[in-house]
Structures are given as structure tokens and as C-alpha cells.
Amino acid sequence: MSDNTPILELKNVDKSFGPIDVLHDISLKVRAGEVLCLLGDNGAGKSTLIKTLAGVHKPTRGTILMDGEPVEFSGPRDAQEKGISTVHQFGGTFPLMSIGRSFFVGVEPTRGWGPFKVYDRKTANEIAVKAVQDFGITRIDDGDRLVGGLSGGERQSLAIARAVHFGARVLILDEPTAALGVKQAAHVLRIVNEAKRRGLAVIFITHQVMHAMAVGDHFAVLIRGAIAADFRRGEKTREEITDLMAGGETMADLEAQIETYMQSHEGQPPPPAQ
Amino acid sequence: MNTRNSVLASSVPSGGESIKVTIGQFSRRPEAGSLLGLIAVFVFFALVGGKVFLSPAGYASWLNVAAEIGIVALPVGLLMIAGDMDLSIGAVIPAASLTVAIISGHYGLPEIVGISAGLGIGLLVGFFNGYLVNRTGVPSLIVTIGSMFGVMGLTLGLTVLIAGSTGVSLVPGPTIKAILGDFVGGMFQVTIFWWLLFVAAFFQLLHVSPVGNWIFALGGDKVSARNAGIPTERLTVALYMLSGFCAAFVGVSQVLVYQSAQVLAGQSFIFNSIMCVVIGGVLLTGGAGSVVGIVLGTLTFAIVNQGIYFTGIDPNLGSVIIGALLLVAVMMNDKFRLMAMSYATKKKK
Lengths: 274, 349
Prior knowledge:
heterodimer, A: alpha/beta, Rossmann fold, 2 domains, four-stranded antiparallel beta sheet, 9 helices, about 25% strand, globular, B: mainly alpha, ABC transporter involved in vitamin B12 uptake, BtuC, two-stranded antiparallel sheet, two-stranded antiparallel ribbon, ATP hydrolysis activity (chain A)
């Protein structure tokens, strides 16, 4: 695999549910050690795009390539086995399960054989705690703690560490910072950088431009199911990106309207809408 | 999350005073609240009920009740941990009883045939429930209310059609009677020992085997569980079949103990089993609970249910006590659950 071959690439992907077109002609690529930020307002088709990448939906048209080879995912499990892991907004974890147990859900380490297989709590806890600490979350040191007792950022970190531990090469982070405070969000962004340093391809979905600018190498803005802009780090300012997300022209229109109003009303701004 | 774990965990040095850690570990266990409830209820009836309550006959009276409900409460509890309900058990119990009574009593076929058919009916209803819950996406509460009425109607209709009445009697042979329907020491139903066996098997399943983790995950977050590769649909069907099987087992043992089967015999089990499970600290919405808790909840329920007869209190007030107990138990369990979470966070700050 040369450095230039993207790990994951979408080529002209369309997705429609019956007569409703949700995604049009999406082309994206993400390489190892690179963070692709996918920006978009609510309803822009982000969730559908994530689900298509994660094998939940099959594209209606177009191809998905992994390491340059076309692939088809039979389901989320298949995508995961091929190295694509999705971490959802709330970490996709189980608040009332212990850290060790939730880390190994579905792939529990066992001792013994046949019907006498025993869930190996000690190994599970040790591995889980080590995996999280390797990501710099040293506050987690007891695998018996309940996930619900962790902060939002720690839960995200746990979920990311889990994905990496189980061999993820592409990490899809669905609004990981949306529900977090400033400090916690910074925490998660550090984890994203760490994942990137380890050579993972990260797809970071967000509508917070600040967070995207902090870690992104490559940006794509999604509007009404199509890619409205595609640019690299440093090519656009924060204001430009925000404008793009809000539908660019609409914002400019609004500003022009206010301008006209103020000119005709002796510099008074328009009264707030009732 | 379970007894075995917690016992091991207390041997791990985790800093702080050891007594504090033990209390913390205790409060983390889902059965913490139900243990306190059981002790309170037992002490109350031991004081009010006096010597008779503490005599072997006293123990037998509530253990017999506990065993029958307990065998059903275990799978109902597992289903609740997995985020589902099963009300159809109330119809499966008499359906299994009558199947045995009709096949082996009315038609006089070998008991093993009747018992196999009775247990088979439980598995069949369970499969049907699980399949419908998966296929339709209708809440399991509704699905199993539907199957409860369906099975009850069929049982009633077929029994009247075949036997001409709503009760069928059966005189079991000595071997089968000894295995499933006897009284040990003249008063302890053999069902109590079967219950212990079921408890051990369910403990193994939920807390020791890796499948237990799947059940917790299924109830915690179904979508995440499926994405993690857990065969959620097969697991749901298996849990319903387990529940149908256990209900049928109680039905079979009832007909062998009482030597007759009645169409409406299982009704009380529906709410009673749910109450045992909830008093035992299982979260109604799924994701948390333990087998030890379910057993403690069952014992608590049975003691109140029977203990009231040993006191001078009007037996009708027993229902009031059970109702109040249920509310207190749920509130206490919520409190303990919050403690379990916040305890862990504070420790490291």
C-alpha cells in the first residue's frame, strides 16, 4: 500500500430510500494518519453517510473502495471486521455495565471450554484499563467501575480505545464533542490526535467548526446530501466554513436584508422577530 | 455487577479504608437493596408471627410458594434485564398442566409423553413470542399479552372440548411423583430443590458465561449490542423459549403435586413474578439486575405473601404490604444504583 492510496474511498455514491434521495454523488477519501472532517447542519445527510460507511446501508449507486479495492459490506459487523469502527455521540456504551464488560461486549474473553466457558473478568478488566490508559486517560484504573460513572469525555475515549484495540483502521466519530463541555471536548480532540498519530484514518463528523479546525487535515461540507465544498487545512477561514454550512448565500442574503433595513431606518437594527 | 466479581474485587487493593471499600462494593451490587428488604421483612414476621413462623412448617409454607414463583421469576428477570417482558407465562403454566393431565390422565398415555408435550408447549409459545417480538417490533408487553390471551383461550376451549370440564385430574406414578411432585419430610415440595438447580443454572448463564454479558448489553442498548456483533434476535428468541420452558416446568410440577390441573391456575404468576424480579433490583427498563437479587426478591415476596397468615393481621392487608414493598424497593434500588455510579467517580477525584 503506497502512502497515496486512501484506506477508504467513496466514488460517486448515491443513496436513496424509495423515491427519496438522501445522498447525491458523494466522493470522499481518507488516508492513514489523516483526519477528514465532515461538516454539515442537521438534516444534511451526515447520519446516512455514516451508516453507509459503516455498512448499515448499502449505496444505491457508486462504489466504496478500501485500499483501492472495491468492497461491499454485508452489514455493520462485516464493515467492522474490515476495520471500520463507528463511535457514536454517547459512546455507544452501556451505562450500567462495568468498564471491562462493556469493552468486550460481543467478544468476551473466556476461560475453560464448551458449555463451561467462563467470562474472564480479570483479563477483560486488565486489557480494557490498559487500552484506555495508553490513550492518556489515567483516571480510569479500575475495570469494575460502571461506565455510567465516567464523564462524557471519558466514555468517548473508552469507546475510541475500544475501537482501536479491536483493530480499527478507519475510525468514524459521530459528533463526539456535541454533548460535551469545553474541557471534555478538548480531551476528546486530544484522543483524536493520538489516534491520528497512530496511523488511523479518522472521519470526524461535527457541526462545531472550532473542533473541526483543531484536528482536521481535510474538510468536506455536506449540504442537502451533496458535498458543497471540499478543501484542505488552512484553505478557508472559520467564518467561511460557518457560512458554507448555513448554506452560504442564505447568510449573505440575511446580512444584506439587515443592511437595507438599517439604512432606511436611520441605523436602527430591525426589531427581534416576535 | 455480580457476587462473584464483587467478592474478587474486594481482594484487589483499591486504596482508602477497607471498610469504606466494602460498603461501596456492597452498594454497587444490584441486590443490595433487596437484601435489606428481605432482612426487614423476615425480622418483622419473625417478631409478629412468632414461633409458628419460625417452625419447619412455617418455612415450608413460604418456601413452597417461593419455589414455584422463583422458577418463573428467573427467566422473567433475565428477559427484563434484556429489556423485554413476558406476561404469557400466566397462560403457559395451566396450558402445560392441562397438557400433561389430558395426555397422561384423560388418555392414559405414559407420563413421559405428557410431560414432554407440556414442556414442548412452553418452548413453542416462547419461540412464537420471541419471533413476533423480533419480526413486528411491537413492544413485548403487548405481544405477550396477546399470546397470553390466545394460549388461555385455546387451553380453555380444547380442555372443555376434550375432557368436558375445566379441570382434569391425574394420578401420577410413584417415580415421577418422587422426582417432580413429592413433599420432602411431608411438607417441603421437591420443587424447592428444582428451584435451587434452576438458580445455579441461571447464575452460571447470567454471571459466569459470556452469554450473560450479551443479555446485559441487549437490555442496555439494543442497537449498540447488535453493532457489537451480538446475535440479538437469536438471543431474544432463546430467552423467550427459556421463559416458556420454565413456566411449563412449573405447570408440570403443579399437576404432579396437586394431582389435578385447572384452566385458570396461572393468573397470579403474571404480576407476582414481575414483582419478585423488581423487588430483587432488576431495572424495569433493562440493562441491570442479578440472579441473587431475583432470588432475594422472590423470598421477600413469598415471606410477605405467606407470613401474613401467621399474624393476627387481616390477610387482605398482605396485598397492601406487597404493594408498598414494591414501591419502596424500586425507590431504594434507584438510590443504590445512583450510589454505585457516583461512588466510583468520587473515589478517584
